[in-house]
Amino acid sequence: MTRILFVCHGNICRSPMAEYVMKDLIRKAGRSEEFLIDSAATSREELGSGVYPPAKRELNRHGIACDGHRARQITEADLCRYDRIYYMDGRNAKYLARMFPGVEGFRPFLDRDVADPWYSGDFTQTWADICEGCERILEELT
Known about the structure:
44% helix; four-stranded parallel β-sheet; Rossmann fold; alpha/beta; globular
């Protein structure tokens, strides 16, 4: 089983979008039993919050539900539980390095920062970035 964790700042926009897009892709590929997918935050700011409403609307617009999501912070236990931990931007990488000094193996989700819709309000661009990253990951794992 491949275990993937997506990480962003608050776990209410980008990382849950990636979590649910990836779950949808692997379900459509008939490979759900081969993966464990989750998401988490580097911060504690949004703990317990659901997916940010505009992010949820973007997912729903593409037929993807994200009900029941509650933001959580990445933990040391996650470092052992997940094979692949992807961060959404350079700031997330810095926070992860501060949180877990000396730990290597965190991976960039894309070769560039994923557009942060919290600040830009552009959920369409974030959707495109998330789809690109998830498709690349799935392709890499097949």
